[in-house]
Amino acid sequence: SIAILLYLAQKFKTPDHWYPAELQKRALVDEYLSWQHTTIRVKAGTMLRHKMLLPIITGKPVPEEKMQSLTEELNVVLNQFEEKFLQDKPFIAGTEISLADLLALEDILQPIIVGNDLFEGRPKLAAWRRRVEGAVGQQLCQEAHEVLLNPSSI
């Protein structure tokens, strides 16, 4: 949860870039954290549930029109993310990675498990992903996302 991440960042005095002390940068992180749970998280999670879980529960595939509608809704919030939060910055809060970038990446990766690569055709988003993964460490990101990106490996 966001509350737990903020608590841990402050309790263990993590490097400042994760949750900046400088108020303007912190406001950018807080703004994204307040926005994401009703936008990217909801839309990406809904797509995952409809494509993967509902067919298991109901025994029927979700109609293609519904999946198209969910994809369009997710594209709207991805456009907002690129235009409002990324703009022309390397990361959400500026030049360094923050908790906002970590949460954004995790939410945006969810639809990949059901075959929707949200980075395809979005060079700004794809470049941001590479920067986030580079800042965290490629090996660590691969290990953390192994099941998500390769569900057949379970």
Automatic annotation (TrEMBL):
Q: EC no.?
A: 2.5.1.18
Supply the enzyme class, top level: transferase
Kindly give the PROSITE patterns that the UniProt entry links to this protein.
Answer: GST_CTER (PS50405)
Its localization reads: Cytoplasm
Q: Which domain of life is it from?
A: Eukaryota
Any one Pfam family match given in the protein's UniProt record, by short name: GST_C
Q: Where is the GST C-terminal domain?
A: 22-154
Q: Which GO terms describe its cellular component?
A: cytoplasm
Q: Which UniProt keywords apply?
A: Cytoplasm, Transferase
> GO biological process annotations for this chain's record?
glutathione metabolic process
Please provide, alphabetically and separated by semicolons, the GO molecular function terms listed in this UniProt record: glutathione transferase activity
* Quaternary structure, from the entry: Homodimer.
Which family is it part of? Answer: Belongs to the GST superfamily. Theta family.
Q: What is this protein called?
A: glutathione transferase
**Which species is this UniProt entry from?**
Tricholaema leucomelas
What taxonomic lineage is listed for the species of origin?
Eukaryota, Metazoa, Chordata, Craniata, Vertebrata
Protein's gene: Gstt1_2
